[in-house]
Structures are given as C-alpha cells and as structure tokens.
Amino acid sequence: MRDALKLVRGEHDFSAFKKKEEVYKSTVRHVLRTAVTRKGRMIYIALEATGFLRYMVRNIVGTLIQVGQGKLTTQDFSEILESGQRESAGPTAAPHGLFLRRVKYGINL
C-alpha cells in the first residue's frame, strides 16, 4: 500500500479518483505528502495536497484497500491513476474515520 500511495505524490490528473459524472474545470491536483501507518489493527492513510476533487481521497483509499488485500498490484494502481477512468479504480471507501485535520492557506507572491 505504501508503494502504491507514493505514486499519487506530485502533480497528476486524478480523473480516475473523482466522483463519477462530476465535471471539473481541471482534474489536475498536486499531492504534496502521503503516508501509511499501522497501529494494531488500524491503518492510517494521510494525504496532503493543494486541493482535492470530490471523493478523491475516498476513491484512492478504496483502491488502496484492494492493493492491501492483494486484489490489485502497485502496477495496477499506477495504470488506474494514468487511465483517468473512474470505472478502473476501486470502490469508494466508506466515510467512517475520514476527517479533515487542517486547512492551510498560502499566498503566492
């Protein structure tokens, strides 16, 4: 899961992980940091980005779960990201446990 999650770092078109049928001016986002940690039976996934699409995080997590279960490989995850096709990605993860920890605003001068 760690290796697959590292693939979303940087600037990518996240169309494969957006809400299906939703139209955006741009589906390109910049992911600054990712992390996967395990504490007991809990797995924590962190994503920091300059912005998110609706359901982007939940769809990434749903697909990562399939990687963790051995249903998809890291290569499969890479191909899904590059495909831009929501149908290729895993299911939308449940919202339970999902939270927004912090919002930071920056000014580019």
Summarize the structure.
The chain has helices at residues 2-6, 56-68, 74-83; strands spanning 10-13, 28-39, 42-49. The chain has 109 residues and is of the alpha+beta class. The mean pLDDT is 93.
Describe the structure.
The chain is an alpha+beta fold and 109 residues long. The protein has helices at residues 2-6, 56-68, 74-83, and strands at 10-13, 28-39, 42-49. A 3-stranded antiparallel beta sheet has the order 1-2-3. The mean pLDDT is 93.
Percent of sequence in beta strands: 15-25%
Query: Residue-averaged pLDDT, rounded?
Result: 93
Classify the helix fraction into a percent range.
25-40%
Shape: globular
**Order of helical and strand elements:** HEEEHH
Largest sheet: 3 strands, antiparallel
What's the total number of strands? 3
Number of helices: 3
Could you give the distance between the termini?
37 Å
Oligomer: single chain
Task: Name the strands of the widest sheet in spatial order.
Answer: 1-2-3
User: How large, in whole angstroms, is the Cα Rg?
Assistant: 14 Å
**Uncertain parts:** none
Determine the structural class based on helices, strands and strand pairing. Answer: alpha+beta
